[in-house]
Amino acid sequence: MTAKTSEPAMTHRLAIILGLLIIVAFAVDYAFYDTKHLVFLAKKMLDLIEWLAFWR
User: Fold this and answer.
1) Around 35, how many Cα atoms within 13 Å sit in the side-chain half-sphere?
2) Which of 30, 55, 52 is nearest to 41 (CA)?
3) In terms of Cα–Cα distance, which of 8, 56, 44 is closest to 36?
4) Which residue, 4, 39, 45, 53, has fewest beta-carbon neighbours within 10 Å?
5) 48: domain range?
6) Hey, is 14 helix, strand or coil?
7) Does the residue 24 lie in any domain?
8) Is 5 a domain residue?
9) Quick one: pLDDT band at residue 5, thresholds 50, 70, 90?
10) 25 in Cβ contact with 33 (< 8 Å)
């Protein structure tokens, strides 16, 4: 059983902060590494999605 709390798990403020952190991480990767890491992560994410779809 889960405990009921009055506060939501993800507030708007937290979502905005996490979104900005992700955007900053993408910008830094683009500025310093020319999207090498973004392409790698995108490929790995697609592999993960295919693997999860197998277990569906």
Assistant:
1) 4
2) 30
3) 44
4) 4
5) 12-54
6) helix
7) yes
8) no
9) low
10) no
* pTM given for the model: 0.60
Query: What distance lies between CA 48 and its chain's CA centroid?
Result: 13
Whether 37 is covered by a domain: the verdict is yes
Tell me which amino acid residue 55 is.
Answer: W
Structure tokens at 29: 């990767």
- Total domains present in the chain: 1
Side chain identity, residue 11:
T
Q: Token digits for 15?
A: 């979502």
pLDDT tens-digit series, residues 17-40: 999 999 998 899 899 888 888 889
Residue 37 identity (one-letter amino acid): H
Closest CA to 26 of 6, 10, 18: 18
Any domain includes 3: no
